[in-house]
Amino acid sequence: MTYKERLDKRKFDEPRKMEAKVGVIPRADGSSYFKIGNTEAYAAVYGPRNLHPRFLQNPSKGILRCYYNMMPFSSFGERVRPGGSRRSKEISLVTQKALLPVLNLDDYPNSVVDVFIEFPQTEAGSRCAGICAASMALADAGLLMKDLVASVSVGRVDDKLVVDLDYNEESYEDGPVADTPIAIMPNSNKITLLQMDGLISKQELKKSLEMAKKVCKDIYDIQKKALKDKYKTGTKNA
């Protein structure tokens, strides 16, 4: 059996509809909202600020900390158990690793930048949406950055390569599924995150990367527009 068309009628290289805003949390130093399909991510940045306790400080540069959290009734599948989990800790860490290459924290010794990412609603692709939101929030906070970071999942459903898998595709039972979250610095095409769940050939992975780069360029344009729109109006989005 072959996967002839996507269940939601999208083209194989077409992401879900996207929406982005910045300045959505007034008391944060920087904040953003990013939606792709039915997955919604809010990111809030606090800092740079003094890190306590002092023994955690780095005297040569600042530290980035990321916190990923899905609200209990946010999941399209099973109810999310409240509190921390191995999965949330793992995604918090990969989010931090994906964002660090674009940040210059040398001017903030002994300081910390905290990024909190909350999901009121999810339907696949949450780590990628969180990275997109966090990148915009860091830019909104005025931190010096080499680039933004755009992220999307690509992979294989049965015999087809697809962009931005949704929940039904991730749980597709009539054939093999491979899900590969990717984060990219769009201006240089450098990859800051590459993970894989499932099996995919070397040639399929190469093609998937090219598909991801193309979509990340579109995400990058949406991120830039959201940042420009805030300063065009001179006010924060409500």
CATH-level-2 architecture:
2-Layer Sandwich
Question: How many domains in all?
Answer: 1
Please state the structural category. alpha+beta
SS field, number of helical segments = 4
Terminus-to-terminus distance: 48 Å
Strand percentage, roughly? 25-35%
Q: Determine Rg (CA atoms, Å).
A: 18 Å
Oligomer: single chain
What is the CATH class?
Answer: Alpha Beta
The CATH superfamily turns out to be GHMP Kinase, N-terminal domain
Sheet having the most strands: 5 strands, mixed
Poorly predicted residue ranges? none
Q: What is the overall pLDDT average?
A: 89
* Structure summary, number of beta strands: 9
Element order: H for helix, E for strand: EEEEHEHEEHEEH
Q: What sort of overall outline do the alpha carbons produce when their principal axes are compared?
A: globular
Helix content: 25-40%
Going across the biggest sheet, name each strand in turn: 1-2-3-5-4
The CATH topology, please?
Answer: Ribosomal Protein S5, domain 2
Topology, please?
Blueprint: E1 18-22, E2 30-36, E3 39-50, E4 63-70, H1 86-99, E5 111-121, H2 126-140, E6 150-157, E7 160-163, H3 167-170, E8 177-185, E9 190-194, H4 202-233
Parallel strand pairs: 4-5
Antiparallel strand pairs: 1-2, 2-3, 3-5, 6-7, 6-8, 8-9
Helix pairs in contact: 1-2, 2-4
